[in-house]
Specification:
Blueprint lengths: L1 H4 L18 H5 L2 H10 L8 H23 L2 H25 L5 H26 L14 H15 L4 H26 L12 H22 L4
Helix pairs in contact: 3-4, 3-9, 4-5, 4-9, 5-6, 5-7, 7-8, 8-9
Amino acid sequence: MASGWWEPVRDYCERTGPELFAEPLNAASNAAFVVAAILLLRRGRAPDLVADAFAWLIGAIGIGSALFHTLAVQWAMLADVIPIALFIHAYFFLALRRFLGVSALPALAGTLAFAVAAALFEPALAGLAGRPLGPLSNGSIGYAPAALALFGVGAASLRAGNRAGHRDGAALIGLGVLFLVSLTARTLDPALCPLLPIGTHWLWHLLNAGVLYGLVRAARRAGPAP
């Protein structure tokens, strides 16, 4: 079992060997998450403990990803993906509450339904396509439910017909577009490797840090749910 946890992971273009710093750009670009967290935690604004908790979670995403892109072993991959999954599902709940005004219990039920749908999304598409889609997308297909949720909540906010709804909806849809650009960088990493030996995964980190920063800023601006 221990050997399994320490099994090497060689999934990225930039990594050409087992060395600790074999992915310098992929590792260093995680500083963007830490910077985003620090900016969100700066004093001088009305206290919002929920938004602050999300800022700390962004910092944890950066640390976990940095561990993965230096150690490049199975357990470090969990340190990478678990904080990301926590952010996606917790933010979905927060978005229902703050942007759409859904009360706590229905928002929790909606989040659980989203989690189930997200888990079934890739297998269902693979069944329809008759082949696994993970390798074709370099694993980025797993983030498609998060992108769809961003656009869905954004569109619902726009339909609210008030100034705050239009502001929040436009922000979420804009961040959704940026998220798609970041996913493109993640997806193209192996395909562009022969032309670009440093790969493009580091660009996914930089852009995604901007997305997460924008999401927390938008939630803070919307204010606590009634």
